[in-house]
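Recall that a protein's primary structure is simply its ordered list of amino acids. Everything else, from secondary elements to tertiary packing, is in principle encoded there. The following example makes that idea concrete.
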Amino acid sequence: MIEVRNLWFSYGDRNVLRGINMVAEKGEVTILMGRNGAGKSTLLMHLNGLLKPDRGGVYVDGVKVRYDRKSLIELRKKIGFVFQNPDDQIVAPTVWQDVVFGPENVGVRDDGKIESILKKLGLDGYENRLCSRLSGGEKKRVAIAGVLAMEPDYVVMDEPTAGVDGFGLKEIIEIVMEMKKDGRGLIISTHDYDFARAVGDRFLIMDGGKVIFDDVYIDHSIAEKCGVRTWYHGGEVVLVPDNSCLPDPAEFDFVAVMGKRAREWLEREGVEADITSAAMERAFLRAIGGSRIMLVCSESMMEVVKREAVSYPVRITVQKTEVVRV
């Protein structure tokens, strides 16, 4: 586990991080989002000792980070850092030379494992290619390969999808999920909401040098309120608990219902549901198409719907109604 405790940091007289607290678990993907200038990259650079805090500290597996040369070498074996611009990270002429550079310098080079990493990242056959001739996406994979060759327990990634197209995004998602599958902890800064939802286990949003949101669930409305770009122009699924006051069905394109009690409640209210089978999935699909859906269900099912919605590019909101206990 990586833990940040009451971390403060300034550039000159400007406070950039102001009392940051966060936790990132091994085997999980922790997503860091926020406006430009919120302090995300500065926070990431503290996680493997690239910056030293003014106050507070960073703890890795329960041990506080120290900043002498020997301690930092050991820290960077444990925590790899993938920069936003791979040109800031690639140091050697060819792919093979670059990937072996780090492990060779710290005495952990294993050519067999490096060959396996290159194959996993789709870089087998690239060993003798000049890094300067690679595409942006290929350079990102080389930078990731160089980090993985150090066999870290954690990987920090700063805007890994910046500048990549749709095919490159799919590759980055697959790479992240493979690293998670291997048991690594990942801490990723991103402006890409859809990427965040595809890979994230925990979501933190920063603003003004502070963490203003920290949860295992996020949706478009939360992200937008916190200043995160979502580029979302589709519809919406509005969750209505079956023990509340029913909103006006005329405000919605479709009414969906889950569960016997919810169906009986709608019937008593004289409302006919449009979607009664596979209601959750069909509601999501209608919302993707731009419709506004009322989804009526029990309070206990609302958390299930929120959790499942992570797999879909849909907006989920909860109807603000006075609950009527029955």
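DSSP finds eleven helices and 14 strands in the chain. The two ends are 44 Å apart (CA to CA).
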